[in-house]
User: Fold these one by one.
Assistant:
Number 1:
Amino acid sequence: MTVAVACAAEADTRAVGRRLASLLRAGDVVLLSGELGAGKTVFASGVAEGLGVETPVVSPSFVLVRRYEGLMTLVHADLYRVGSSGEIEDLDLASDAADGVLVVEWGDVSEQSFGEDHLMVRITQDDEGVRTVALEPHGSWRSRPLGEVAP
Amino acid sequence: MTDAPAVLGIETSCDETAVAVVRGYRVLSNVLASQVDAHARFGGVVPEVAARAHVEAIRALTHRALAEAGMHQMDLDAIAATRGPGLAGALMVGFSYGKALAWALDTPFLGIDHMEGHLFAPRLDDPEYGPPAIVLLASGGHSQIVHLKDWGEYETLGSTIDDAAGEAFDKLARFLGLGYPGGPAIDRESEGGDPDAVRFPRALPDRPFDFSFSGLKTSVVTYVRKHHAAGTLPPIPDLAASIQEAIADVLVAKTFNAVEETGVRALAGGGGVLANRRLRARLAEEADRRGVALHLPSVAMCTDNGAMVAAAGVYRLGLGERTAPSADIDSSLRLG
């Protein structure tokens, strides 16, 4: 079942990502959804922190994929500039991240490309800029203790 | 100059397939797949990301670069190709092609750091340019300030902590419906606009040479939504000019921090963002005011190209370097 966390500040969004990291296993796929400026890269950077990645996480929008080494490899991808599911297949992200965790910004544009087993993270914001980070489990994610990501 | 080595340069680190022939630091030819097949590549907002696109283009482009240079491949003194950073699949195409061609021709092969290529690009337009210099490298994928201490000796003084400058241009242009690519769209739309119409925040992180553009993005999105709903949105040229000014202000301020801090009196640039006319004008104005020599390359030498890779190859060849046939790409290569 979906777990939603209210995040008033950027640090809160980052903290949800950081706590999610402790639930991650090799081969996991996390898809991020949210409008421009919602905080997808901030969330991904929290995941990286939680995985012990020491280099700063910067947006992969243009380079499409960035790899980071931590407790596990983090493959941080972004479909912002990628148009078709054919191109997504060409990128072959899943095998790139087989031994680590794959986090995909704008992953909702092609959810079906990543198989049933994934976590969908939807970040929305209200008029005051308060974000809601909703974690929506699919496949094996349904049996994981997602409630642990709440503060 | 005919005794200077002729080097073929191949660049396939991201979207663009590019091949050039350079003799010494003189460009004999410089061809891009996007020029050849403009319709397929710019028909939509979707760049070709697949390695396949590079595979399809590279052989014909190489032949074209040689033909335009008036050379036969047997006349090449070396072949240089981008080794990283970039997309692994894309890099692999140019790097493998370059290695194979060099092997077939029994000529030296050199794997080149893409960012070092950008550092050499201004040299192709301007023989006066050289170390020591401060170089602002800003594109969709990168934003950094490099201290060029000597050829081969580079120190990255600062870089973006979130989004690259070109990414801010592109995402905001798309958000405003101005089209793709975003940098040229904002440059164009801002003509006649008032850069002081909206005072968007200038994020200046504590570290004196680092950039941050994520806050600007969020601030513009929030501002536009609010004022659009209220029917008080300023005209697009004012918005575009205000966004451009915010980005240029930060790039200029941080760059000249580096100039002052190091005491280096020469400034250069590279990357697609350096094609922005307002940024170029602001850098020129500030350099002039401070008596700093400015070496901004032409727009064609700012964006990704094969000539810059070839130029770095000329330098590396002169050092007697060779990249072994067993060498591999390095998608996360970092400059100094």
Number 2:
Amino acid sequence: MSTETQDQAAQAKNDLFAHAKAPVNQQLTAEQKIKLYTDMVRIRKFEQAALQSYQKGKMGGFLHLYIGQEATAVGTISLMDDNDHIITAYRDHGHALAVGMTMNECMAELFGKFTGCSKGKGGSMHFFAPDKRYWGGHGIVGGQTPLGLGIAFALKYKGLKGCCLTYLGDGAINQGPFHESLNLASLWDIPVVYIIENNRYSMGTSQTRSSAHPEEGLAARAEAYNMEWDKVDGSNLYEIRAKTAVAMERARNESRPMLLEIDTYRYYGHSIADANHKKYRTKEEIEDYQNNKDPISVFQQILIQEGVLDEEQVKEIDSTAKEEAKASIEFADNSPFPPAQELLTDVYWATDNPGQHNNQGRMFFNDRLPWDDEYQA
Amino acid sequence: MAVITYRQAIKDALAEEITRDENVFVMGEEVAQYNGAYKVTEGLWTRFGDKRLVDAPISEAGFIGLAIGSAMMGLRPVVEMMFFSFVYVAWDQAVNNASSVRYMSGGQINVPLVIRGPANGGTNVGATHSHTPENLVANFPGLKVVCPATPADAKGLMKSAIRDNDPVFVMESTVLYGEEGEVPDDEDFIIPLGKADVKRKGKDLSIIAHGRSVLMALQAAEELKEKHNIDAEVVDLRSIRPLDEETIIESVKKTGRALLVEENKPYSGVGAQISHLIQRRCFDYLDAPVHRLSAVDAPAFYSPPVEKVQLPEAPLIIRETLDMLNVKR
């Protein structure tokens, strides 16, 4: 090795471990580190299996894959305490698995099955698990950003020490409600942490074609709202945890919001229906990320160097996750579709809870329903 | 029973519910320190403080979305729209998020949200400030909408809306804020959502209306009786969704004639829905086609005398009734 190459190698190693000594990372046990790694692998295997099923025609609608971004969901969500909540946009499978939702309920939802996390009513973009403090899964770009603000507002109102991690894509940062939310968050000291998952493209439009921003990055817009911000390398789970922990502590302890921008990349298109995703970006660009900044490979490298993980375990984690994903497809395949009558449940709390409210009158307005006896006769 | 204004009735409802439930708070533009643009919340900030009366900057999408998020967490926000016309800048939050979260989560989440404020024309503020979106809101399954016409209804429906576990839009009227009426003093006086009220009994035709049109219909009914000996029944819908169809049907079966009156525009207005209901359920009872009176089908006109013509007032209701009954006017 030449001196120059040695220097480069040393530098790369420094970068890899630059945040290993942050308290939130230093206190991780080997077991916890392996869990973080495993969670990322599980997300990837789940989505690869989902993609295959999509291609086989097992599901309808859109499928926005998170592959390439796994460290963001896993790293940030791993920092959640009992009073911390999350809400995200439509690229939501990674967050769902990271909060502990099962592959079965998620895959079944994609398949439109009654056993899905939303009984087949939400689909890929609308996963929910409020019992795990995961508030969705939202389809309209930027539409979830005031909701996350409201969740954090409620924590403060109730005197609870927590925060709401509110995710959005780089394409959402120009939406009005997001700016309104930033203003309110800072003005009213609301413990919300906004996390821009910057994968560089809003569908087929690159960031340079969509967003005017200071040189330092998208998150620097926070300065206009007198809000703290930071930029994060989304390929390095240690860095994500270190920097997100700072934001979450600030939110919990000082009730101050913060805006994080996590640089990341999606390997697939905006959704599977995005036929142009190799036209608006180069093959070299995609390969560079896959070969040099893949968050799973990077963390694998870190754990192998730390002696926490070996090649044997890597293979085992891989195959276990693959099996779990495969089993979730079987579960989804074997699950029933919701009965048509489910169309009219979960619309109103009142109609689902007869006798517990004072509502009268008619709630739904079809003259006849497709499943009425008179049609069946 | 005390005689109070429509404005006071709403204020009392808010104060009582804030006192009753610590999760209830009021948020909106100028609701706290300014005492409300239309004084509906006057004195409440002094009484309840910053936590329960929250002045929001002008950013409806932001604070309606915030309210929905907080409702998902179990709070009971009451959001004031200074004018209901302003809800359009928050349409995605107000109708998309509020109506769909429960459904898309498979029933795991409730949104006990109230959005309230004046939704009326007739005050010469031009087209952008004069919308009556009750028909639009009613088109979203998951949402409820009520339009009280009297102080008692305003109080009873507001209290029901705040206690309801679904999102309820309460559409008031600046023209009605000063109207007086008897209101029960009982703090648990509530009016169920989805219950119409026969405001005047009659046998010759049913005038079916909501909001300010109910008062116009009552005025018209008095004159019809005095001058033409026509006995009109006035049915106040009060609630648009849920809808009390049985009261409408019962009335129309009795009178055989229905005149629908609203300040909304005709196309896909509330009257269109009621009209369908009547032809479907009362076909054999009708002695005349269903007639409808709505605002003249154009954006709200500014010029005061012209805007007065645009909305269906009592004289127009009288003329329409006489034509329906083939009475010479």
